[in-house]
Write a structure and sequence with these properties.
elongated, four-stranded antiparallel sheet, three-stranded antiparallel sheet, alpha+beta, single chain, 180 residues
Length: 180
């Protein structure tokens, strides 16, 4: 059911942000790990409970339960859309993040500006397969510092390191020093 809903949600239009004329191509498009959908699923279960109370609970409070159910359903839908439309894109020239439901925010970092990537894997993340990226760059106050709930964080880190290496931005000695 969740997969069907996610397949029918509106997508971010990343093609508008690519520099196709300069030869930019998408290497990897990263969505949040599916664990981010647990809160909206719990809220949806709460909606069912509120409808049950509206039908079988005190008749004088039925209107309250119905309004609360609509509000909770709206919040669950918004959270699902927000998580689904928050994407991280790795191209052959840069990394960028596009997010937003109503208005779209795009944060970009050229590959040459990436100094270091820290991969944080909390205990739950290690069990179910997600982690968080923390980017260090020359400009510390950028909009692309932390990317949370990345599925297969080690594989995504290797992808970024490979793209940086293949672009010629890192020398071979730097590559061997990092143990890759």
């Amino acid at each position: 059911m969740l997969r069907w809903v996610l397949e029918h949600l509106p997508e971010q239009e990343i093609e508008n942000h690519l520099l196709v004329e300069e030869g930019e191509v998408v290497i990897d498009l990263v969505r949040h790990h599916r664990i981010v959908y647990w809160v909206p699923l719990l809220e949806t279960a709460g909606v069912v409970g509120l409808w049950f109370l509206a039908v079988f609970g005190p008749i004088s409070l039925g209107w309250f339960f119905i309004l609360a159910a609509f509000a909770l359903a709206g919040h669950a839908l918004y959270r699902t859309l927000r998580e689904h439309r928050d994407i991280f894109v790795i191209t052959n020239m840069r990394v960028f993040r596009a997010s937003g439901v109503i208005s779209v925010r795009v944060a970009t970092m050229p590959l040459r500006r990436i100094l270091d990537i820290t991969v944080e894997k909390p205990v739950l993340g290690r069990m179910v397969g997600y982690g968080h990226f923390v980017f260090e760059s020359a400009a510390q106050d950028q909009g692309l510092r932390t990317i949370r709930f990345v599925g297969d964080p080690d594989g995504r880190d290797r992808t970024i390191q490979r793209v940086v290496q293949n672009s010629g931005l890192r020398s071979q000695s730097d590559h061997h020093l990092q143990g890759e």
